[in-house]
Each structure stands twice: as C-alpha cells, then as structure tokens.
Amino acid sequence: MAIIGPTAVGKTALSLELAARLNAEVMSVDSRQVYRYMDVGTDKISPSERRSVLHHLIDIADPDEIFSVALFVKLAQEAVTRILARGRTPLFVGGTPFYYNALFNASLTVDLPEDRKTRAYFEGLAEAEGVEALHGMLAEVDPESAARLHPNDVRRVSRALEIHALTGTPPSRLYSLKEKARSGMDVLYIGLNRRRDELYENITSRVRRQFSSGYPEEVEWLLKNGFDERFPSMQGFGYKELAAFCRGTMTLEEALEGDIRRTKAFCRRQMTWFGKFSPVSWYDVSSGSAKDLLTAVLETAKAHLGR
Q1: Exposed/middle/buried for residue 132 (C-beta within 10 Å: 0-12, 13-18, 19+)
Q2: Which of 18, 49, 97, 254 has a CA 20 to 30 Å removed from the CA of 149?
Q3: Taking the model in full, what pTM does it have?
Q4: Which candidate, 161, 63, 168, 152, places its Cα nearest to that of 121?
C-alpha cells in the first residue's frame, strides 16, 4: 500500500498513524530524503519519529553521490523482502512519482526528470566542441541510446545526457523498466489532496519555517564541505537558491521566494502525475478532520490487506 499526493498535503502525519495501527514499516519514496546531511530542506522526519516507526531509504547516500532510480528499485525490493519476512507490512510514502513508476511498473514517459539548464549545458557543448564529441559522451554512458540516435540530433542526444545526469541511470535502462514487472506487489494507492489555496498556504508556511530553523546554515555547511552545485542533490528547490545566497548572488528573501515558487510549481506537476496513477482511493483532506480521514483510510487499508 502507498500514500501519494502533492507536497505539504499531509502524507507524513497520516503515515505515522497508519503504520502504528497496521504493524507497518514506512518505505520513503522521496528522491531528496535519500541524502545524508540534508535534513531541514527536505523536511525529513525526525530521529525520534523514526525510532517510533521504522523507516527505510532515508539517509542512505552522500550528497555528492548520484542516486539512481535503478538503485532505488533494488534497495526497495530488498527492504520489502525483509519487512515481509518479519511479518510486517510495507507502507510506501512519498511524493516522487518517478520512483513509484519504476517500482510498480507504470509508464515512465511523463515522469522522466527535466532540467533546462542541464540540457542547455550539453547543447552548448555541442556548439563548442562539435556534435561528434557530444555523441561520444553519450556513447560512454549509454551505448544503446547512442546507437539509436544520430550525432546530428543534438536535441535528443542532449536530452539523453540530461536524463543520465539527473538520474545516474542510462536512459535506455529507464525506458526498459516499463517493459518489466519490477515488484510483483499488488499496490493500492491512497491519494491525498487539498484545495489548492490550502496547499499553497501550507507550502509557504513550511518554507518560511525551514528558513528560520537552520536551512541557510545547513546549505552553508554543505558548501563548506564540498557538497556544492555540481551535484544533482544540490539542484533541488531551496538548496539551489540558498547556495546562490551563500555565494552572495541572491538575497535571503529572493532565495525564500524562489523556493516557494519552485515548490508550488512542483506541487502542480505532482498533481498531474499522480492523477494518472491507478488504482487510487482519493481522499480530500480539506473536507473533514484528521480523525475522520484516518478512520476512512484504515477501513480501505484493512479491506485491501484482507484484515
């Protein structure tokens, strides 16, 4: 079973309540929370809460590592095997649709990550060093894609290199995932949503809380220890803006507003992506109390688990 929905909708709070009642362990499905030392900006669950409910796939990579979707699938499957062997229930919780798709074998096409600056960088290399040089870079990391794409097709070659840079996985490998049953699990998605004005208000409040609770200091520490903008982990919303603040190219208020703006945009994309998931039981968090929501979701969960 999995709890999905846009950022700041309330997935974490519900997951803790459900896990306690279903003898479950939480599998984090969050591409940012895999990184150590990045706690405030990823709104990571506290150590005390992790002691109360066992969590997996949090703090498993350093920020200078490229954590690929293929590695996520491998580690998630291994963790599920261990959880089931202990007679417990795996509960997937998080807001990274790309990871869900890779694990549960949905279509990957809409969810391949994008970063226009990264793509522009590779397109610039083609202009500076030639299309053959760019195609040679792709051949080194993904021979299958290179064999499929002509060197003159700079747009697609750059896109393939962009995907590899963002995921650490050859694009051909990602496309092949949709052809294979990855998990063998019968997943039911519990979808949470709120009115958009509430979501945006929650996002703004959370970002302001993060900025006043050590987020700038966290980014400053990361930069001082060599975890800088070279790495995909530091390209996420908030971290990218605060890195610019620490380097003196952006004010703190500009960084805060940039974080809020990019988080809202990500929220909109999540709602589009998760709208394509199936089967989903959707719940409007705005329409009732937290107790009512828990009661309704528990009933659905127990029916799905045969309890």
Answers
A1: exposed
A2: 97
A3: 0.76
A4: 161
**Host H or E run for residue 199:** helix 196-211
Residues 58/51, Cβ–Cβ less than 8 Å:
no
Q: Please write the tens of the pLDDT for every residue from 173-208.
A: 776 655 444 455 778 899 999 999 999 999 999 999
**Domain end call among 140, 173, 206:** 173
Rounded Cα distance between 235 and 168, Å, is 14
The answer on 191 and 169 residing in a single domain is: no
- Residue-range definition of the domain harbouring residue 142: 116-173
Report the percentage of the chain scoring pLDDT > 70.
94
Domain boundary among 154, 173, 192: 173
Q: Are 36 and 62 in contact (CB under 8 A)?
A: yes
User: Which residue in this structure is represented by tokens 């507003």?
Assistant: 257
**Domains: count for the chain:** 2
Q: Do 7 and 141 fall into the same domain?
A: no
Domain identity same for 89 and 220: yes
